[in-house]
UniProtKB/TrEMBL annotation:
Reaction equations catalysed: ATP + protein L-histidine = ADP + protein N-phospho-L-histidine
Phylogenetic placement of the source organism: Bacteria, Bacillati, Bacillota, Clostridia, Lachnospirales
Swiss-Prot/TrEMBL keywords: Kinase, Phosphoprotein, Transferase, Two-component regulatory system
PROSITE patterns hit by this protein: HIS_KIN
Entry keyword Transport: no
Official protein name in the record: histidine kinase
Length: 258
């Protein structure tokens, strides 16, 4: 998989040598087929293993007390998640476009996310005007991208920061916000949190595949999100400081004939 630096270098090569573009396109299509084939071949036996585990547990509940049984379960769950994320990353640029009423779409996103944190102490706010435009978009993949960012924000505000004495930081409650606005040409989306923030040295590579600081993360969530946004001809950037929160800024173009 290409990093953002690799992608920029590749674009430069294609600009300097246009005859190479067709060759690179063939390579990329072959690469995507390889990932799809591998994911499919692994998913089938993994599903069988998972089903067998459930059968064993139902017929022999005592296995739940066995040493490392829960770790085995967690490993299977992680592999399933990794395969799902690989598939999402591989297919992130394939869009099923249709007219999308962004006002109702973002209100559904906000409601869904608010419901998922109802039993937590996280304060969630949203700003979604009534007069947002209609976009040509893949609503399923766009929803996936936005929920990835909101879940990341949830993890960030739950991450313990150093003590108040060490950093002279006032105590604060965890907060996440979603804001959507539009101008003549662009839809602007901001997802912010007051969580642990992202270290400056990590921000340059944060959207690259397999970059993660989560114990159980695959490192593909933000890479998938960027692929989906870029496939919509949009942009995604961030502002962040360690222990001072993060803001993800997205833009999506408004087509005049949408």
């Amino acid at each position: 998989m290409l990093s953002s630096t690799d992608h920029d270098k590749l674009q430069q090569i294609i600009q300097e040598h246009p005859e190479t573009e067709e060759l690179f396109n063939r390579i990329f299509k072959s690469h995507q087929m390889d990932i799809s084939t591998i994911s499919h071949e692994i998913r089938n036996p993994l599903t069988l293993v998972y089903s067998t585990l459930q059968l064993i547990e139902s017929q022999h509940p005592e296995v739940l007390e066995f040493a490392h049984w829960s770790e085995f379960h967690q490993d299977i769950e992680y592999m399933k998640l990794l395969l799902e994320d690989l598939s999402s990353y591989n297919n992130g640029e394939r869009l099923d476009l249709a007219p999308l009423s962004t006002g109702s779409f973002f209100r559904r996103i906000a409601l869904s996310f608010a419901s998922s944190i109802i039993d937590t102490d996280i304060e969630f706010t949203s700003y979604i005007p009534e007069d947002l435009p209609v976009l040509s978009a893949d609503s399923v993949k766009l929803r996936q991208a936005l929920l990835n960012l909101l879940r990341n924000a949830t993890d960030a505000v739950r991450t313990e920061s150093p003590s108040q004495d060490q950093h002279d930081m006032p105590a604060h409650s965890p907060q996440i916000s979603l804001s959507v606005t539009a101008d003549a040409d662009l839809l602007h989306i901001e997802i912010s949190d007051n969580g642990c923030g992202i270290a400056p040295e990590d921000q340059e590579h944060i959207f690259e595949p397999f970059i993660t600081h989560k114990v159980d993360g695959t490192g593909l969530g933000l890479a998938i999100t960027r692929r989906i946004i870029q496939a919509h001809h949009g942009t995604i950037t961030l502002r962040s400081a360690r222990y001072a929160g993060t803001v993800f800024i997205l833009t999506l173009p408004i087509e005049k004939n949408s």
